[in-house]
Amino acid sequence: MKIVVLKGMLKESHEKKIEDTAEKVGAKVCFVKDEKDIPEDFKDAEVIYGFGINTAKTSKALKWMCVPSAGVDAFVEPGFFANDDCLLSNSSGAYGVTIAEHIIAVTLMMMRKLTYTYEEILNGVWGLPKPQKSLKDCRITVLGTGDIGRTFAKRAKAFEPENIIGVCRSGKSDEESFDRVVKIEDLEEVLKETDLLVMSLPDTPETKGILSEDKIKLLPEGAYIVNVGRGSAIDEIALAKYLENGKLGGAALDVFVNEPLPKESPLWKTKNLLITPHNAGNLTLDYTLNKNVDMFCEDLLNYSNGLLLKYIVDRKKGY
Amino acid sequence: MKIVVLKGMLKESHEKKIEDTAEKVGAKVCFVKDEKDIPEDFKDAEVIYGFGINTAKTSKALKWMCVPSAGVDAFVEPGFFANDDCLLSNSSGAYGVTIAEHIIAVTLMMMRKLTYTYEEILNGVWGLPKPQKSLKDCRITVLGTGDIGRTFAKRAKAFEPENIIGVCRSGKSDEESFDRVVKIEDLEEVLKETDLLVMSLPDTPETKGILSEDKIKLLPEGAYIVNVGRGSAIDEIALAKYLENGKLGGAALDVFVNEPLPKESPLWKTKNLLITPHNAGNLTLDYTLNKNVDMFCEDLLNYSNGLLLKYIVDRKKGY
User: What's the rounded Cα separation, in Å, for the pair A71 and A73?
Assistant: First the structure.
């Protein structure tokens, strides 16, 4: 078996771990910086770990691509793989910790007006006290109860919110930090009693535009929205409108319909909108990178033993 | 019994609660905006709720002053009260929630480079991924295990740190979120294994300059410091030095030796220093204000029944 690994941010210890696992299953590994560096004798590799987009599109020999991201919307379009039976796995589960910390950070920055304080400090101004809101007694709704939503809920629970409600397709979750879990059909009811809406949804036909203007309108006065899933889930124009008119307390977006956010987008200057450049989760955190590599190695054993991949993506569902 | 209440941020509901409690104990209450508005027949009031500094300094009739802050260093100097037997109580216990959220917020802002990201966004720049650190697996030391330190520790625990060590005079605490509690004498040992040092100490002779240059040097490379207690606890010049030379990962100060921070202070421009204008806890948060009033009313019942005040300050100890 031949495996190509796109090095990305991998450190020596990670390459060692991958090599050791490959040896166990009798596979040969080739580490490259870029797809164009794949040597001739690895062009027919069976497995690729990394965003091997060109390989996926052109190699009929490829049987499994593992991507180091949670989002896979770029790879699930019909016809994307030259080999239509190619397996796709992702690294959903590696990003929960870092993205949950992002959600807590931006939520508190909004609730405590810390961006305004920071702007004052940059200008040498010792500002007046600003109105503070709190996660204590806050009604939190988590739309999308995957690894990110659950890891966030565990942390948020310690802040003594009034409740945390999970919303997902099945209406079920084992995570005990949710006071209640409801189906997506019940979203409208839940939004009416939501002070903080956290969105961690994959991009699928079902989630596109799920937070429409009609739904934004249901949120109570002063509510906050945090989106770390995919930008397509929110009607950005409506969101900007309800931020500008003061209905919403604030929004923190890490993801956008178009990324990078175009220079001409009005979102850059929208009131009470905290923008981050799709950086809630990245591979600079050792924990995330280690977990990512561990997950690939775990599945490499599964793959070579003919077992189902643990982190497989259902390409039809899109996650 | 006559009571003067300085209104500050009190709402109608709070005044009602105070009036109801006063009625129970047969006291008369006078609400004023400012000490200079105290009417003639309340100048000999027995109790004042608020920063009644002039009254404390001049009225021999005053027997109890309750201040709506946790810090009391301004009121414990010998000779401060015209009536040397005057009782002093504070509102330590009302600020834990809001200040704990501040500590989490500024810690994550530093660990995730969110101030740099925000500056880029203000300039219309969609920046590159920045190196992230995490509370997960972090070694946290909490210097000062009062209400603020304990409330922070409870929240921090949910982020799965490697450990949380409390440091206080007695070396003891009931708070289960601390993996270990040690005495101040053991601080040096603990600092060597501290990635995040949270300081929530009152200003007393013992705490002045407790984080000296020698102690800062003991911290591991890349450590973070958050101070929400009193500015006098840190050698600010040494702190700035170890931020500028990159030994420390960052520091977030809400309190300073001189406040407001003087225009000419080099701290304004110190690298990786996140300044907030003594605003970690303020009375704008409903929860904090409600709790503050509840505490005063609770002690008003105690006072009128000749019981010990629950929130009494030991003026000799200074907290």
Answer: 6
* Mean pLDDT value of segment A68-83: 94
Residues A125 and A239 placed together within one structural domain of the fold: yes
**Residue ranges making up the domain that contains B40:** 2-94+285-304
Asked if residue A214 and residue A135 are part of one domain, the reply reads yes
| Closest-CA residue to B299 (of B6, B25, B51) | B25
Query: Is the pLDDT assigned to residue A295 strictly greater than 90?
Result: yes
CB pairs under 8 A between A and B: 130
**pLDDT for A84 beyond 90:** yes
Residues A117 and A145 in one domain: yes
Q: Are residues B155 and B63 in the same domain?
A: no
Cα-based angle A280, A283, A286 (whole degrees, multiple of 5): 110
Are residues A196 and A51 part of one domain? Answer: no
Report yes or no on B309 lying in a domain.
no
**Residue A10 above 90 pLDDT?**
yes
CATH of the domain at A199: 3.40.50.720
Q: Which of A14, A139, A150, A278 is catalytic?
A: A278
Co-location of B161 and B109 in the same domain: yes
Q: How far is A291 from chain B (nearest CA, A)?
A: 13
Cβ-defined contact of B104 to A104 (cutoff 8 Å): yes
Mean pLDDT over A76-95 rounds to 95
Please say if the pLDDT value at position B267 is more than 90. yes
What mean pLDDT value characterizes chain A? Answer: 97
Clarify whether residues B265 and B170 are in a common domain.
yes
Domain count across chain A = 2
Are both A82 and A116 inside the same structural domain? no
**Residue of chain A whose Cα is closest to the Cα of B108:** A105
How many residues does this entry show for chain B?
Answer: 319
**What are A207-226's pLDDT values in tens digits?**
999 999 999 999 999 999 99
> What are the tokens at B192?
């060597």
Q: How far is CA B54 from CA A21, B96, B165, in A?
A: 75, 28, 41
CA distance A295 to chain B (A): 19
How confident is residue B318, by pLDDT bands cut at 50, 70 and 90? confident
Q: Which residues pair with A182 in a beta bridge?
A: A167
Is B14 annotated in the active site? no
Asked if residue B144 is part of any domain, the answer here is: yes
ipTM of the complex: 0.95
Least confident of A74-78, A263-267, B134-138, B256-260: A74-78
Q: Which of B14, B150, B230, B315 is catalytic?
A: B230
Cβ contact A294:A288 at 8 Å: no
Tell me whether residue B150 is one of the annotated catalytic residues.
no
Is A34 a member of any domain? yes
The answer to whether position B314 is within a domain reads no
Taking 90 as the threshold, does the pLDDT of residue B48 lie above it? yes
Distance between CA atoms of residues B312 and B38, nearest Å: 25
